[in-house]
Amino acid sequence: MRDFEYEAPITLAAAIELAGKHNSSARMLAGGTDLIDQVRVGRLAPDMLIDVKKIAELNVLEHSSFGLRLGAAVPCYQVYGHCGIVSDYAALADSCRIIGGVQIQSRASVGGNLCNSGPAADSIPSLIALEAVALIAGPKGRREVAVEDFCTGPGKNVLAAGELLVELKFPARVANSGSHYRRFIPRNEMDIAVVGVGASVVLNDAKDKFVSARISLGAVAPTPLFAKAAGDGLAGQPVNDDSIAKAAAAAKVIAKPITDMRGTAEFRMHITGVLVERALKAAVARAKGEHVDCKVGH
Fold this sequence. Notes:
Uridine Diphospho-n-acetylenolpyruvylglucosamine Reductase, domain 3; Enolase-like, domain 1; 11 helices; single chain; about 30% helix
């Protein structure tokens, strides 16, 4: 591993100042579970690592009637250990439970997973399905970006030089809503999604029709995808297998998978439809107050 400088500021202003001084040669470190390995193998060569774990704004975890605020440095184990998130933002808890093992989950953060911007990242489809918005701060001030617009390519995103992700903001969940994240992995020893799907639904009071839905896909394109048309097409439709199958077919239209060691493009396309159906059915079950028992990777 190459030499680099290390700083651990305790204020957001200090972190932004440090990033500005080092410009593109600085990298933010939250959990470091991806970053350290990327530096070790030479994929990244920063001159400065700025540890943001000690900054209060990046450690906020606030669930209220107004929604959810999740600091960029909050580790995964705190997310799936929070009863309010498990209840109202279940897809996010689903994702955090399967990002690495227990040791990784004690360091890795959802914010870091988003900033790493991998096409197969487990948290990003859930963030998109749950309408998360990224709060970004930098030398020019603050701005907000919807998570579906955050990633711009494999390992690339909208963060400009000197900017960092501060927190993720989620709108309050409404009555009769439910969400779920599900992925397929080739085997337990290869802990990366062949396809990942996040789904969130709102049902009417009778729980027999969809009011709205959001569907997101991972690992089937250079960036995670928001399948807006597929979700919009469920509005007003009956909650049944036919409606869900049509949504799955619509979601597959935007998928542009590749063939690699984890699976062929044709296999990924098929699995996309299967997982959209399963994720939607699980989200519906949660919206109805039913228990969902899902084995990781299926």
